[in-house]
Every structure is written in C-alpha cells, then in structure tokens.
UniProtKB/TrEMBL annotation, chains A, B, C, D, E:
Pfam families: CorA (PF01544). The chain crosses the membrane at residues 298-316, 336-355. The lineage of its organism: Bacteria, Pseudomonadati, Pseudomonadota, Gammaproteobacteria, Salinisphaerales. Keywords: Cell membrane, Coiled coil, Ion transport, Magnesium, Membrane, Transmembrane, Transmembrane helix, Transport. It is found in: Cell membrane; Membrane. Mediates influx of magnesium ions. Residues 183-210 form a coiled coil. Belongs to the CorA metal ion transporter (MIT) (TC 1.A.35) family. The keyword Translocase does not apply. Its main location: membrane. Signal peptide: none annotated. This is Magnesium transport protein CorA. NCBIfam families: corA.
C-alpha cells in the first residue's frame, strides 16, 4: 500500500545510529562511486570507482576546491561508518542513509547538513520512490541514491562544461542542483498521471465495468501515499530556504526558493489528481445509478404492459363449464375474441399515455 | 486535466536559469512590444514595435521617468537574455518567463521584484490560464503576457489621460494596475460559472440524463485546478503587501491590499462553486435514488396485483379430468366463474388497502 | 448562487478609486441621510435629510462633539466624492462603498478606519446580504447601508436617551454599536434556519419526495456562501480587536471582543447548519435505500411464491393428447387436482420457512 | 438542532451591557446562593441563602481570606447589577451571565477575569449544555450555574476538609477546581456515547431498519454542536494557560494545563464519535446495498428459471386445431409430455450451471 | 470504540493530584521493578524487585551516576506517593501515571520533566494502547508501563554493553531511548495494517459479502482513535525538541528530532491507512452498484423476452368458441402454429438487435 512511507521499518530497541546492512531482499544493486573534484584553479577531475578506498584516495587538498562523491547502489555499512569518520557525519544521519524509506527531511548539524529526498520512478505502472540522501559540508557533497540508474549524469556534464554558477564550486549550490533533479523528475512522473486520468474519464462515460473501479481505487491509493511524501519534500525545501547555517550562502537562496516552488507545484498536481480521482468515483456511481434507472424503467414498462394483458388472456383460458350461462358467456359471443383484443389494445394505449405523462417514454 | 498546473514541465537536469525557446506547439503567437515612457516633466511617449532593438533604443534618461515595456506573445530566448543583461534581472526569473505555467509567485531580488500571475480566459467553455510575468525596478516595469490579445490597453489609456495616481509614474503602482487587471479578469471569468451552475440546477430537477453528470464532473475537475492557482495568486499578493523592499512605497500598500481582497473574493467564489458542484452531484444521486424508488414501487404494485390473479386464472385453466368429482369441481359450478372473478376482486381490494396503509399509493 | 460574494463585479481596467454610479438594476433605493451631533456639553441634535448639502451644513465645531452621518440608500458618486474630500477619505474605500458585495474587511488609513460589513436579511425565504460600510474618524462616523429599511434606529434612540457608554461620544464606540447591530441581526436570521432544518428532519423520516432534496440542496448552496461571508466578518472583527491605531481606545476593546465573539457564534451556527444539512442528505439517501430494499423484498417474495405456482398450473394447462398413457396421466387421476393443490401448498410453506430463516419476513 | 450554540439570541440594538431578565420560558429555576469564606487563619464558614442581601452581608474583611459565592438558578438582573457594582465587574461580562448559551470564552479585565463554560448534562437521551460563568478576582470567586442541581458540592466538601492546595485559598486555584468539575463532567457524558455507538454497530450488522438511520442522524447532529462547543472550551482553557495577568499565579499553571489536557481529550472523543457515526452511516449504506444485491439476485434467479419454463408450458396450452398436421403435432406424440418435461429439466440444469459459473449460486 | 482515548475517566470533583488505586477491572498485572544504576566510574548494577522498599534502598550516591527505575504493572497508589516525595514529583503527574489512557503529553516541571506516551500492541486483531509514563530528572529516570511484558529489555541490554552514547549516563538520552522503543513499536504494529488492507483489496474485487464491510468499518473505527493518539504522540515529541529546560542537553536534540520524525511517519501511515480504508468502502459501493446493474440487466433481458412471448401463447390458449368465424380464426388455420412460432422468433430477433444497439448484450 503505502510502500514508501513504510520503507524499512526501524528495528525496535536497536541502538540509535547503529549501522546495519539491509536484509538481502531490501538491497538495490551493486555500488558505483562517482567522484568529482572541481572548482578553484585546478582542472575538473572525474573518477568512477566501485570501491570506497579507491574513491577516498584521490587527493583533494587544493584550496577552494569541492569534492563530490556520489554513491549509486548499496553502500556497505562498514564503508558508511568509515565515511562518517572521514567527514564527521552524525551517526543518526548515516543510519538514515541505510534505512531507505525516510520521510524527506532536513537535519542541520554543526559541520554538515543532511537532507533526505524521495525520487519517484515508475515500474510496471506503479509509482515508487527511491531515497536520495545528501550530506553538504564546507568542501564536500556526498550523495547516495538507493537505486541503480545514474540519475545525476546531467549534473556531472554541467560541471565538465563549467557553465553558469556551478563553476563557483559552492557545496550548497551543488546540493541545490541535485535537489532540482529530484524535484523535476517528480514533475515528469506526475505528468504521466494526467494522461491516464483523461483516458479513464473517456472510458467511464463510454461504458462501465468493474476493472475501471479497480484502476481508480489503485490510483487513489497510490496518490494517498504520494501526497504525503511530496508534502514532506516541499516542507523540507521550505525548511532549507529558512535555514540559518554557515554552509548556506544567501546568494543561493533564490535557487532553493525555485526548487521549493517546483516541489509545491508537484504537490499541487498530486493533490489535484487525488481530488479528480475522487470526483471520478462519484461520477461513476452517479452514472451507474442513472443506468440502473434506465434499465428498471424498461423492465417496469414491459411488466406493466404485459402482466395485465397476460392476466386477461389467462382468464379466458379457464375451463369453466360454459353450459351454465353464468360461466364465461363471453366465450360464446360472436365477437368475443375481437372484443377482448380491443380491450387489450385500449389498455395498452392508456398505459402508453400514462407513461408519456410521467415522462417515462 | 490540470493544464495550468502542469504547464511546461521543467527539463530534468538542465542548468537552472538556462533560457531555452519553447517547442513550437507551446508557442502562443508573434511578439508585439508596447513601450511607454511617462512621468517627470516630459510628455508621455508610446511606441509599438515587433523588434526588441527598436524597443530598447528609445532614450529614457530623463529624471523621474518610468519606462514600461510590455511584451505580448513569444519572446525569443536570446532577446530575453539581452533584456536580463540590460535590466540586471535574475536568470531564474527570466527562465520562469519562458516556462509558462508557473504557480503565481513573488520573488524579490536586490534590484527588482519578479511576479508571476495567472490570467484566466475562456476558450470553448474551458477556463484556461495564461501567464503574466512582471519585473518591477526603480524606473522600469517589464510585463510579459503569454497570449495574443492586448490585455493592458485600458492601463495605457489611463496613462495617456494621466488620471489619478498613475501619473506619479511609480513603478510599483503601475505593477499594481497590471495585477488589478489580472485579478478583475479572473472575477469576470468566475462570474460566468454562476450562470452555468444555476442552469445545471434547473435541469437537474427537471430531468436526469448522463450528460449532466459529465458536465458537473468536468466543472469540478476544472475548479480543482482553478482553486489551486487562485489560492497561489491570493498568497502572492499577500506576500507583496508584506514585502519590505526599497521598491515598494508605503503609500501604495492600500492598493495591493485592495487587489489581494479582490483575489480572495475570486478564490472564495471558486471554492464556493466547487462545493456547490459537489452538492449538486450528491443531489443528483439522491434524485436518481428517489426516482428508482418510484419506478420500483410501480413495478412491485403491478407484480403484486397481477401475479396472484394470473395464478388463479392459471389454476382454472388446468385440464384435469373433471369426470372425477375431486378434480376442479368449481369448473362445473353454476356460479363458478362469477365466484372466481369475485375472489379476484376481493384480492385486489385487499391489496389496495394494504398498499394504502403502507403509503405506497 | 453565491450572490453576495459575486456582488457587483469590478470593471476590468478601470482606474482604482474611480467613483462610478451603479447601473440602474443594481440600485437599492432613494437616499435618506440621518445626521446626529452629540457629546460634549451641548444637546444632541438629530436631522433627517435627503440632500447631502443640507446634511453637511449643520455646524459641528463644538469641542468633543461627535458627528454621525448615516446614509440609507444609494449615494450618488458625486456626493461621495465630496464627502471624501470633506473628511479626507481614501478613494479606494469610497469605491468600495459604491461597489456593493465587498467581503467584510477592515482597512486602516492614517486619519480614518474603513470597515465593510454584510448585513443579512431574508427575502422570499432567501437569505441575502446588504453591505454596511463605516468610516470612523476622530470626531465623525459615516455609515452607509445599501438598503432601505432604517436598521440603526435603535442606536439613535440610545443616543437620545444618552444611556451608558454611548454618551461619551467616542467614535470607535459608536462604530462598535453599529457593528453590534449587524452581527446581532445575523444571529436572528441564522436562528430561522434552525426551525426549517428541524421541520425538514421531521418530514424526511415521514416520507420521501423530490421536493425535499431540492430544499436541502438550496439550503446547502446558500449556506456555502453565508459561511464564507460570515467567516470574513468574524476575521474583520478580530482584525479590529488587534488594530493598533490612534482612533481605537483601549477601553473599548472588550466591546469589539464581544462583537467578535457573537460573530464567531454566528459562524459556528452557519457551519453547524451546513454540516447538518449534509448529514440530512446522507440520511435521506440511506432512507431511500432502505425503502428500496423493502420494496424489492416485497416484489421478490411475490415473484418467488407465484412464479413456481403459475408454472405448475401452466403445465397442467397443456393440451397433450391424454390418450397416450405417457402424456400427463395426472390429469386423469381421481385425486389429481387435490394432489397438485397439495404440492403447491407444500411449496408455499417451504418458501415461507425459507424466508423466515433469512429474516425476510 | 444546535440548541446550545443558539442559546438566547442577543436582542438587536439593545445597549451592550444592558441587564434584562430572560423570558419566563428561558428561566432555569429558583435561585440558591452558596457562600463560603475560607483561608487565612480563621475558620471556614459556609452559608446557603436564597436572597442576595443575606449572602452579601457576611463580613469578609479578614486578611488573606477568599470569598466564594455560587449562584445556582436564575439570578435576577437587578441583583446582578448590584453584584457588578460591589465587585467592579464589567457590564458586558454581567450581560453574558444572563444570556445563557455563550460560547465558552475567557475575558480578562483589569480587576477580574471572566470565564464562561458549558456544562453538559443528559436529558431524555439528549446531550444539552448549561452555562457556568466564573468571575475570578483578588479575594473573591463568583460562580453562576444556569441549572438547578448542585454541581459544585464536591468542591465545597474539599474546602471543608481543607485538603491539598485548595486550603491556600487562591482564587485562581478555586476557579481551576470549578473548571475541572465542568470538564470532567463532559468526560462522563461523552463516555455514554461510546456504549450507544457500540450498540448501534451491533444492531446495524444484524438487521437494517429506518429507526437506526434516525438514531445515527440524531447523534451526528448533536455531535456537530458538541464539537463546536467543546473546541471553544478547550481553546478557552488554552487561553487561560497563556494569560499574563496579576490574578494568575505561575504555580497554578500546571493545573490549568491539566484541565486543558482533559478538555482536549473530551474534544478528541467528540470528534472521534462524529467520525465513527459518519463511518457507520457509510457502512449502513454499503450493507443495504449488499442486501439489495442479494435480494435482486434471488429475484433474477427465480425469474430466469421460471419465465422460460412457463412460456413452454404456455405454448403447449394453445388451442390450435390439431387436425392440421402442422399445428402442434407434439401434442399428439406418444412421448410428447415426457419430452417437454425433459427439455425443461435440461433448461433448468443449463441455467444452474450458468449461474454457478457466474458465482450467483 | 475509542478505548484508549476514553481510558479511565477522571472522577468528577475529586481533588487534583489525589492518588487512588484503579478499580480491580482496570488493573493490568503484578508489579515488577527493574532498577539500574550506571554511568560514572562504577560498574553498572541491575536489580529486579517486586517491592518498592527493596528498589529504593540501593545506594546511588556516587557522582555522575544515573538511576533508572522501571515499573512494570500496577504501582500501588501508596508507593507512588512515596516515590513522589523521594523524587519531588508533581502530584498531577503522579495522578496521570495511575489514570491510564492519558493523551500523550509532555509537562515540564522545575526539577523534572514528565512525559506520557502510548505504546500500541495487538490483541485478538485489535490494536490497543498501553500507557508508558516517564519522569526525567537530573540523575534519575522513572518509567512506568501499564502492561506486563518487559518492553524495555533491549535498552537494559544496551546499557550493559555500554555501547554508544547511552554510556554517558545522561537522563534525557535514556528517556529518548525509551521513547524510541515506543515509537518503533508503533511502527511495527502499523505495518501489520498494510498486509490486512492488501488482503481486503484482493477479496473485495473477487466477491462481495457483508463480513468485509464489517471488517473495513472496524478498521476505520480503530484508525480514527489511533490517528488522534499518534498525532498527540508526534506533537509531544515536537514539544520536547523545542523544550528549553536545564535537563535537556542540546547535543541530544538530534535524537529527539529523529524520534519525532519516526512518530510523524507512523502518523502519516495511520492517516494513509484511514484514507485507504475510506477509498475501499467507496470502491465497495461502486462495485456493488455495478453488480446490481449486471443482475438487473439480466432480469430485464429475461422479462423483456419472455413476457411478450408468454402473452402470445396465453392469447392462443383462450377458449373462445371457434364456431364463430370472428373468434380466433387463427386456431383453425392450417399453418397457424408455425405462423405463431414464426412471429415469436421474429420478436426475439428484434429484441436481440435492440439490446445489441443499446449495448446490453
């Protein structure tokens, strides 16, 4: 149901900050480490490793230089612990990197800021979320993606091209660029719901079948979870805008404001879709009710016309002994049959007029 | 569905502030530039151009003079970039001018204030929004309308007539005048919903058909999106009232308060219509249910009366050999037929009384 | 629908503060001006005029004296402009006096406070609102009522009797007295809904007809609009309590707090009625559904009993040639007829027991 | 409907603070006055009077002594006016004592604090509220109960026993004790709803009848009003906790916090019951719908089986002249009857299999 | 219904802070006392007692040493009073320990902080809450669990292992560890709802029966109560984060922030489940409505086909005297029977085409 919100439930009573590798079925894939060193006067250097030691050995002592380590896939708990020591990261934040399924949130510590985000992606028509975690320090940014596709490739390209503000090598601006990728991806995924809701609307007015209810319910259920995650994401960015921390440059505030604005648009969309899906279910119910009315009107018309007629025919099918003049003398009349048919015709006509007046026909 | 909220989705990973021309299908029309220079001691000058160079060349160095450049239609990304340099505009704000479908918002930068608004218009009974963007600086106002009809003509007329406060040539008052046009247009568009809801109400109590459900659903769906956009618009103006910025004169606050008040009324209307449409759907369902009850009561009356009668007629239509005195001796009775008819009449009368007591008749 | 909220829509592009007479169909009636001068050591003077000049000529130069001008009916735009000059009123506030249908609001200017309120009244079972506008200055109060009945007569009487605090001739206390009349009138009007809802409840449990749905829907629709107006009214008074302005005496705060408390009670009532009307519609739907169940159970009982019986009778009404010993030998049996009747009786009894067990009887 | 919220509507235009006796039908009962003087070094003294003069004559000039006057029943307006003078009470607060049905609220004046609360009680299965008003001064507490049962007897007992903090004779602590009685009584009354909702649930799954809908609707309607009153009560206590007034001792804050906590629990209960009653109505509707489905399935089974059979029997009941070899030769067949019965049996079997496959049986 | 919220209702008029043993049916089990002394330079000591005297006698005078007393089961009122004296606890807080069913809350007193939490557990598929109360002082933590299973065993183990921050022996960190256990247990319990909702969804699309409605209603009802309790729990932790008290170390704030974050996730889950269960009921109603439509269509088809046919057969079963040439001459025709059968076949075909066109087949 609410898969992302559930995530990996915390283990009761375990020491806070304890780093424990996830169970095999909660793993996401092999680790790839992307390291970039850029800014200052030296050249931009990029390396791709699968081993933490190799990634950490790159010297980065130059002045005004920013190191960005991006971890794609499962980071072993032991490596994470070493990272924590190397960069003075808070154990609770490290624990949150391992325990996927955190609510998007921002925790400011003395020497670094930790942010956890939810990156939506679509698998088999299901919208799921993968956790993206960020540590922003004075001269480093660490990012973790609990997935296996290289989401931040466009940002690496922009660093190589050294276009725009990213060339200043400010850690919070780089963090904004990563957050921006996450938010804009949400936008893309949400936009997909638009088309499916429009299709559903067209189908619903054409015919009603149960599968449609199942689809609408599944969509609402998913949007319930998404709304909560996306609201947290938007609040997290709002928190970031207001953050009073040495690591955050006033000049970069407009960028976070922009990201927050996009996150709010995404949230508005998710809420709008949820309300629309609800309205669709109401509409479905009204349509089904209208159709039932039509069907029952048909049935009632048929029954109202033919029951009296059949009854009359039944009466004259009785076998009373017509030798008694009191027993069904109509049977012996010369024009008995035409008379009965006439009576029936008059009945049908009368009903027809009655139904007309009640607007049933 | 939520067209305006969707707008032009941001491209994932693109450099923030990158100015990219929209795809051909997202273009709105050819560009017209209206330039006005007014205030100070000199005369008011107005020029209409289709080319940025021509619009920028007008000398405007006089003291206390305000330049207003209004861009109607698509502004090429290259021109926008030049404008940004000329007026020291923030790249993120410029990007928002190009990417239509922003949430109404206000961003205050050091030398200018950027506002994005949503101007509603009606096309084929659909309420859509077009983006209006404003830059307010010390001695300039830039406005952009992602549409092709000249919405701000009345404001230009007022400048020519130099009536009222607009003659003071304050940039924030001019911005207010433009915001006022956008809000009052929203009011006009919303007022149209009133008549359509009243028509729907009248129809719904007269007859029920499926088209009406479709119309109500479409209206609710649209109002879901409008509520969100109009709420952002109202919040944006509230933000403006509270803005502490050199460009905002305290004397002009009451005007923004007035615009915000109108925006709230528009939002109240949209919310009221949404609730009314919801109530209408509930009402429709109740009406359909009442009608079904009436139809089924009719059917049940008919069946309850005629089924027993037909059964009796059926019994006396059986062909048992009446030579046995045990087999349907009634058939041989002298008054068998009148007796049966009498029994039937008594039955009908009894049922009639029963239905009366249950208030079914 | 939401008549009051709609009010007189602003004209797009018109100069803010422009005073334009309403169209003939938006007029409310001829103007009567009530002028009172009281407080200080001199006597209380009251005059009733239909002409602004006459009303303005009364000398009021005495010390510590309060002038109250009440305008009942349509004030010509030209007169309003003169008033504005005489009392230094803000043009936007004057415009709001003319454009009926403002949201209740409070605008504090340097030399006066402007308040707009909504006075409910009932016409043909419809609850409508009339605008009451107030200007509160150092030594004057101007009030405007867009209607024709003299709502503030009791306040004038109290001034004549010089009872209580009103004799102090403080302009803000007089304003409170007027606001109090508006709020208490709302209370009276809302109380009328109580009786109608109770009647509706009684009716709904007695019988179901479509008119009732129409009445409930109309009531909800009206309450949607009233809730919004009354919430604004309550917020306006809250705003007044918190107002930090030279014209507001701290000693009079408790009075405004009292008015606000009453306005909140009125709002609570309107919200309560709206929820109750919603619950009533749910109840109606459940009742209709229960009745349908009863009707259908009846129909099913009848059909279930008589269809098999009629079938049996039909079988023995077939005309197979009984000369063949295989063709319906029952017809020739001595006790064929009683046997068939017996079988039918057993069938009915069985069904009766079956229905009993399923609690259908 | 919302009896308590309605209360005694304010009279339009009457002077604020005017003390007017309620109409005879709004009276609650004869007045009893309980006076206690306690604290300081002297003994606790208690007197019960029916006359204000007698109650006021008790000397209470000792130092550090607290006087508590409790008025049970209708207080004549004249007596209230005299009390107001004696204790310097604000006229608006006195008016609120007389006008029962105030929203729970707290008004802090210079020399006293006025609180109005709603005491729930049950009469004929209806939950109603009676107003309890409190004035808290330096050395006095005045309490008014618009009812006739002696609700504060336990508090008087505690004063006599001089147990705990009440012996300190602080006026605000005594006020807390009275508020505590009101809140805890609310709790008891609300707890009664629990049992009734559980009974309703059991009944609803056993059988459906209209009375139950009436009961649920009545409960929801009442809870709508209670929620509003209890929310005000909780807000009033929150207001009290935050009150910065000489009369409020910091040491007693935890007690008000405790009372507020209980008031919130009571409010949570009321809201929970309201939601549960709503869920119950939804459930009722679903159950009714399920039952209708079952009934109609039954009807359809019967009709589907017997209509074709009856038709076949009807065909062979036709009286075509069998002398023509083309007219119903089956009638003359030797095994005509068994053949027809066989065909019928095959039909029934086929339908049975069909219904099985559609899971209707 | 809302068992936890109801809890043990306060007794009206009883002295606040009075410690009264609960009635026998509200007792939870025999008392076990776990005492741990740890921190400083001395060894960690643990003792398990069933008697308060034994638990209190352990000397704990060493410097920088923390005493943790955990009470599992019913604490006699007399023992609680002695504890209160020994540790200077506020009587209101002690009363809340005895009166189970408090809303989760935090009360800060001068020398200690009192927190009350709700620990969920599952009994017979019902989610219930047990109260956990905490007193946090300078050098002691007292915890009370109104249940009988030893929930805090993992924390005791961690103290023995002296792993991580818990070895610092700070009272607020220990309190956090206990709060963490409560919150994480909530998470586990809530996760169980996920599976049950998924099962319900599968069942609902397979078949509809009333038991399912009962299950959904019961789930919603329970979640109504849980939402309220969990929201209070989350607010309580938020309150703790913001608490400015000597006993709270700034270094431990991130831990409470983490606990609050988990509590919010739990609350999000409960709200999500509640909305999902609501959507499920809507879906159920829509499905039932669709099924009814299908059934009625079937019935109408059958009736529409066979009623006219049976009527025709009935007509030719009438016994008119065919000696008159006007009476049913068709009976004597040579091809009368085939003609009638043909007419019937044409009728059936026509209806079939009609139903096809209306998409009923």
């Amino acid at each position: 149901m609410l898969h992302y919100l559930l995530g990996r439930p915390p283990r009761v009573g375990v020491r806070p900050g304890a780093l424990i590798d996830p169970e095999p079925d909660a793993r996401v894939g092999a680790l790839t480490i992307y390291r970039m060193d850029f800014g200052g006067d030296a050249d931009t250097r990029e390396r791709t490793e699968t081993d933490l030691d190799a990634a950490l050995t790159v010297p980065s002592q130059e002045d005004h230089r920013l190191t960005w380590l991006h971890f794609e896939g499962d980071v072993p708990a032991a490596d994470l612990a070493r990272l924590g020591e190397a960069y003075h990261l808070h154990p609770l934040a490290l624990e949150d990197v391992l325990n996927h399924g955190q609510r998007p949130k921002l925790d400011a510590y003395r020497y670094s800021v930790f942010a956890s985000m939810a990156l939506p992606f679509t698998r088999e028509h299901e919208c799921l979320f993968q956790q993206v975690s960020l540590f922003v320090g004075e001269d480093f940014v660490l990012s973790f993606h609990a997935g296996t596709h290289d989401v931040f490739a466009p940002v690496r390209n922009r660093i190589h091209e050294a276009q725009g503000r990213i060339a200043h090598a400010e850690s919070d601006y780089l963090a904004y660029c990563l957050a921006d990728v996450v938010v804009d991806t949400s936008f893309e995924v949400l936009a997909g719901y638009n088309d499916r809701l429009e299709e559903l609307e067209d189908e619903i007015f054409d015919n009603t079948n149960r599968d449609m209810i199942e689809v609408i319910h599944a969509m609402r259920r998913r949007l319930i979870g998404m709304k909560k995650v996306l609201r947290s994401q938007s609040e997290m960015l709002l928190h970031w805008i207001g953050l009073d921390h040495d690591l955050i440059h006033a000049d970069n505030r407009p960028y976070f404001r922009d990201a927050e604005d996009h996150a709010r648009r995404v949230l508005d969309l998710a809420e709008g879709y949820y309300e629309t899906a609800g309205s669709l279910l109401d509409t479905y119910l009204s349509l089904a009710s209208t159709r039932l009315n039509e069907i029952m009107r048909m049935l009632t018309l048929i029954a109202t016309v033919f029951m009296p007629l059949s009854f009359i025919a039944g009466v004259y099918g009785m076998n009373f002994d017509t030798r008694s003049p009191w027993n069904m003398p109509e049977l012996g009349w010369r024009f008995g049959y035409p008379a009965v048919i006439g009576v029936m015709a008059v009945l049908v006509l009368g009903m027809f007029l009655y139904f007309r007046r009640r607007r049933w026909l």
